[in-house]
């Protein structure tokens, strides 16, 4: 895997939203900050292994469910 992979339309990710997407078999959490920046991280909590898309978001911090 390398380079850029489109995973959803820009309109599908509103301000403050988070979405889990499958990128070539890897689940990724894609988020948009309130100021419009898009970021992506692994969707699995490194501590408890839970799906981060089911957790809570506070600013730029996602807490495992």
Would you mind describing this structure in some detail?
- With 65 residues, the chain is mainly beta.
- It has a domain at 12-53: Rieske Iron-sulfur Protein, CATH 2.102.10.10.
- Helices cover 0% and strands 37% of the residues.
- The strands form two sheets. A three-stranded antiparallel beta sheet has the order 1-2-3, with no helix packed on it. Strands 4-5 form a two-stranded antiparallel sheet.
- Strand 1 (18-23) and strand 2 (26-32) form a beta hairpin.
- It is globular, with a radius of gyration of 12 Å.
- The termini are far apart.
How is this fold's topology laid out?
Elements: E1 18-23, E2 26-32, E3 38-42, E4 56-58, E5 61-63
Antiparallel strand pairs: 1-2, 2-3, 4-5
Protein name: Rieske domain-containing protein
Keywords: 2Fe-2S, Iron, Iron-sulfur, Metal-binding
Domain Rieske: 5-65
Give the structure's gist in a few sentences.
This protein has 65 residues and is mainly β. The protein has strands spanning 18-23, 26-32, 38-42, 56-58, 61-63.
Strand residue content: 35-45%
Given the structure, what is the number of helices? 0
CATH class of the domain at 12-53: Mainly Beta
CATH topology assignment of the domain at 12-53:
Rieske Iron-sulfur Protein
**What's the architecture of the domain at 12-53 in CATH terms?**
3-layer Sandwich
How are the strands of the largest sheet arranged?
Answer: 1-2-3
Total DSSP E strands: 5
CATH H-tier superfamily of the domain at 12-53: Rieske [2Fe-2S] iron-sulphur domain
Helix content: under 10%
Order of helices and strands: EEEEE
């Amino acid at each position: 895997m390398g380079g850029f992979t489109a995973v959803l339309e820009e309109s599908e990710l509103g301000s403050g939203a988070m979405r889990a997407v499958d990128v070539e078999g890897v689940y990724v959490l894609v988020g948009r900050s309130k100021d419009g920046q898009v970021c992506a991280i692994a969707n699995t909590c490194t501590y408890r292994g839970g799906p981060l898309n089911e957790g809570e978001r506070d600013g730029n911090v996602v807490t495992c469910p």
